[in-house]
Design goal:
The complex is a heterodimer of chains A (317) and B (310). By secondary structure, chain A is mainly alpha-helical. Chain A has 13 helices and no strands. In chain A, helix 6 (142-153) crosses helix 7 (157-183), helix 8 packs across helix 9 and helix 9 (199-235) packs parallel to helix 10. Chain B is mainly alpha-helical and 310 residues long. In chain B, 78% of the residues lie in helices and 0% in strands. Classes of the chains: A mainly alpha (317), B mainly alpha (310). At the A-B interface, helix 5, helix 6, helix 9, helix 10 and helix 11 of A face helix 1, helix 6, helix 7, helix 8 and helix 11 of B.
């Protein structure tokens, strides 16, 4: 625990969540108008990818003789080297990335939260074993770990999701673990224990609800990074395989046509950027740490943060 | 201080062991016999495959293979590439300078953009310069670095013809990869420095310094900046490790022969020793940088020494 006091400390990708978490003190976040606008925009993107079969003007894989036609009335974002409609491919292309990112975050949330709860409420032997294993996972940069897993498991949506989720599990585990350490000192937990509730029931009914808000904020932040990782993997040819339309893979395909068809890689790139941007903004909003709010309240008012503590040092006990 | 370093060194040992187990195990879980993969397309007989399997030691129990692997590691031997029989350590040594150059250049880009932006934003939070810097930072972290690389190549190589889009030649060939790789990191630095500055300005010692009539510049230089640096310094070291990993995509795009592209090719060709060696090497650097950052933090902020070494 002693390391957790040297808190003001960012590490790796999730340090982005750190300023946000400062204000996520166990309470469910209140949603303002801005948050709803962001959620609505994200929903539009998700709906567009879900409804792609009905709203896309062309089939994403239909080859035509109109090779490398620039953006225009016929083809909104132009066509690629095989005459496929870039707009249609961009609509479809979110499916693989978004699904594997969502799956990855979901798996990491479940596994990480469960491990964190167990580590927080178990014998020190079990908890230090879990936390040391998490240290090892954190010993790898996320992309490298994903590459390693994908090299082992082969391509596909599920292996890709697993590959991404493994890198995220320790983050959830550490945050939940550290929070549950303090929560289990609370009177109501002692009361529940005295009343004879089993450990599993205490974790589920008393500790889990108390860490929910934190978990939600990390989920949002992790989702943005998961989309980036998923598209990086497909960009490197380790995710979705051609001719499946995918933002990352299509970016890679467009790389060869920068001279004659710069529009091929433009649309998927913008799509990824906007999606990650919205997800990140949502994370900011959820934590209630909007820019102005933080300034007004003085961002330094509450320094000891859950997440920075969780990710700094080695998290040792 | 020495105690802190010793403690950290000691803690790094199990992590490194774990990292070596993970790299070893994961690569041995790959479906398909590497010997088969190696001889693919050469119509080797099953006997030849079996002979090669034996020669590579792949028929022995996993645990024994691991300890042999570990023993060789301790002698600095990372094994030989399956593809061209070159020692992996040699290959890494050849490729390392290019990747270090790239990471260092990206770091320079990140600092040159990120620190001024963070300073401007953090000293006058809420002002219009802060808004520009913060919006830029939010956008900077959302743009995928490999797409940014393509956009940069499109604008500066294809359209304007200012810099080459490929290769590891002179100084101008590193500009675009460094910007692409460093941009997101610059955004991160700006944001962390801004948050650190706002934190530091809220402390009572700033009010005390103001009451004593110190100028704003002096307060910033003597106390605030040092205190605000903590999160940024922590990110610096860790992010260097990430830069090494992020170099995979950038090196592939720009055709640079570095560690990242070495790893990428090795994964595609199932060259197990090279993948193991490369991943292990980067993970070790990563752990070492963590260690370095802890020490650096203790130097910058003496308060962490007490808590960290107690």
């Amino acid at each position: 625990m002693n390391n957790d006091t040297n808190a003001a400390d960012g590490s790796k990708w999730w340090q982005w969540a750190a300023p946000r978490l400062r204000r996520a003190s166990g309470r469910p976040p209140r949603l303002g108008t801005g948050t709803w606008v962001i959620i609505a925009l994200l929903l539009i993107i998700v709906l567009a990818t879900i409804l792609a079969p009905w709203i896309s003007p062309y089939s994403p894989t239909a080859v035509s003789s109109a090779h490398l036609v620039g953006p225009g009335a016929q083809h909104l974002f132009g066509t690629d080297d095989l005459g496929r409609d870039v707009f249609s491919r961009t609509l479809w292309g979110g499916r693989v990335s978004l699904v594997s990112a969502a799956l990855a975050v979901l798996m990491a949330t479940i596994a990480g939260t469960a491990l964190g709860l167990i580590a927080g409420y178990s014998h020190w032997l079990i908890s230090s074993l879990i936390m040391r294993i998490m240290d090892i996972v954190l010993g790898f940069p996320a992309l490298l770990l994903a590459l390693l897993v994908l090299a082992t498991a082969g391509g596909g949506t599920l292996p890709e999701a697993i590959a991404i989720s493994i890198a995220f599990v320790p983050v959830f585990t550490r945050v939940v673990y550290l929070s549950s350490l303090s929560i289990k000192q609370e009177g109501y937990v002692t009361a529940a224990r005295v009343a004879g509730l089993r450990a599993a029931a205490i974790m589920r009914k008393h500790i889990l609800p108390a860490v929910q808000a934190e978990v939600l904020v990390i989920m949002t932040s992790a989702f943005g990074w998961a989309i980036l990782l998923a598209s990086t993997l497909s960009f490197l040819g380790l995710g979705a395989q051609p001719p499946t339309p995918d933002w990352g893979a299509d970016l890679n395909a467009g790389q060869s046509y920068l001279v004659d068809g710069w529009w091929i890689s433009l649309a998927p790139g913008i799509a990824i950027t906007i999606t990650i941007l919205l997800v990140n903004l949502l994370g900011d909003q959820l934590a209630g740490g909007t820019r102005r709010g933080a300034v007004r309240r003085g961002a330094g008012a509450d320094t000891a943060t859950v997440l920075t503590a969780a990710t700094s040092g080695t998290g040792e006990l | 201080m020495t105690l802190l370093i010793l403690r950290r060194l000691l803690l790094a040992v199990p992590v490194l062991l774990g990292v070596s187990i993970v790299t070893f195990a994961s690569l041995h879980l790959i479906p398909g016999n590497p010997a088969q993969t190696l001889l693919f397309g050469t119509d080797a007989s099953p006997q030849q495959v079996a002979a090669l399997t034996q020669q590579l030691g792949l028929d022995r129990p996993m645990v024994i293979q691991y300890f042999e692997y570990l023993g060789r590691l301790l002698h600095g031997n990372l094994g030989e590439s399956y593809i061209n029989q070159v020692p992996v350590a040699t290959e890494i040594a050849q490729r390392l300078p290019s990747t270090i150059q790239l990471a260092a250049a990206a770091l320079v880009v990140a600092l040159v953009i990120g620190v001024p932006a963070g300073l401007v934003a953090g000293t006058r939070p809420g002002g219009w310069l802060d808004r520009i810097a913060t919006s830029g930072a939010v956008l900077g972290v959302a743009i995928p670095y490999f797409w940014l690389a393509l956009v940069l190549v499109l604008i500066f190589s294809v359209k304007l013809g200012l810099v080459p889009s490929l290769g590891t030649g002179g100084f101008d060939s590193i500009i675009l990869p460094a910007i692409a790789l460093g941009w997101g990191f610059a955004a991160m630095i700006a944001r962390l420095l801004r948050a650190g500055l706002i934190d530091a300005y809220a402390q009572p010692y700033v009010t005390a310094a103001q009451a004593r009539g110190l100028s704003a510049g002096r307060i910033l230089a003597t106390t605030v900046f040092r205190n605000a640096c903590g999160p940024m310094v922590a990110a610096l070291g860790l992010q260097l490790g990430q830069l090494l990993a992020g170099a995979v995509a950038i090196e592939v795009i720009f055709g640079r022969a570095g560690l990242g592209s070495l790893l990428f090719n090795a994964i595609s060709s199932k060259d197990i020793p090279t993948v193991q060696g490369g991943v292990l090497f980067i993970a070790v650097i990563y752990v070492a940088l963590n260690l370095l950052v802890d020490v650096l933090k203790a130097i910058i902020d003496p308060r962490t020494r007490r808590t960290a070494s107690s």
